[in-house]
Design brief:
The chain is mostly helical and 399 residues long. It is 73% helix and 0% strand.
Amino acid sequence: MRKLSALDATFIGLAAMLGAGVFVVFGPAFEAAGSWLLPAIALAGFIAYVNAASVSQLAAKVDRSGGVYAYGRHYLGEGWGTLAGISFLIGKIGSAAAIALTFASYLTPTTVVPTALGATLVMMGINLAGIKRTALGSKILASITLAFLTILIAAALIAPTVSVSARTPHPMGFLSGVALVFFAFAGYARVATLGAEVQDSARNVPKAIAISLGIVLAIYLMLGYLLMSRMGDSLGGVTPLADLAAVALPNLSGLSSGPFVAVAALGSLLALLAGMSRTAAEMATDGELPSVFAHRLRNGTPWVAELTITGFVLLLIITGGVVFTIGLSSFAILIYYAIANLTAFRQPKQESTRPRFWGLLGMVLCLAIGFSVPLSSLLIGAATLASAMFLRWGLKALR
């Protein structure tokens, strides 16, 4: 039974992107890209647009949950679909850990890990209660986030400006900054992973992706400009919006701004867990993961997948840091989108009026940016992805 409207799907996308993109990436991205932060945001937004068009093109023809996993399997074959699905799960486990740690860094900076673990378990509980509660939670959390960001942007516009030193980055530094910013845009794909639970998905999934991405891109460009012009060279770290709030909203500085930021992070975490569990369930249905992951509760929630994925998120929270997990996530998700663009390029011409060139361009851009993440994230991400694919090959050979 389809339960989500276009508005529900849009808010899930907004909650996913805003929680991840706004509250963590601008500091590390500025340290990598320097005074080229705005071009980095623009390029990341352009790549996201190309990817969104490819995802929308594919979602209009493949009416199934699982996102690029389902699309790659349909048009390219089982192996490509599995590579996309594993990339998605690795990337989003990294995202979930990063967002949980960001939530805790803003709200309880002295007890980051315990708070991050608790938040992840609570969001898992909401998802286990059913997709309608996921949509309701995303609406509430995204609405609070938009209200806070509107107030912050309005206040920052009238705050005094400061100068920024001209810091032209090395080309790899700029590309690394683009990769870190791209982490913030990845939420729109979570709408596609819920395709089978959206009413009239062929029309509403592309619509929800376009609306949520457009809103978020405008917010990111404005915040990037305000962060540089109001904070200057002091911009950095993993809590940049708390620092901007201290300048633009001095009466809400410190811990007073923490709850607003924490609420946004929870929205992202909620949508992340929902998307990952449903992709894992689809892979289990196809025999790419053990069949137990396809088991669902009466409300349709794939509970074994939800519990297992949450366990991996908890492990990464304990062992990883914010910047490392962002880099890991960006690498794996850019591989995922490279496959999405390749799939769109290979889609039969009669199924889309979009020029095939865009799919090829998107694939090249995703690969170029994906291999520009910080070295530790690149090595661990590539090794994990290769190991997972080798394990999949071995299990297939034993059957």
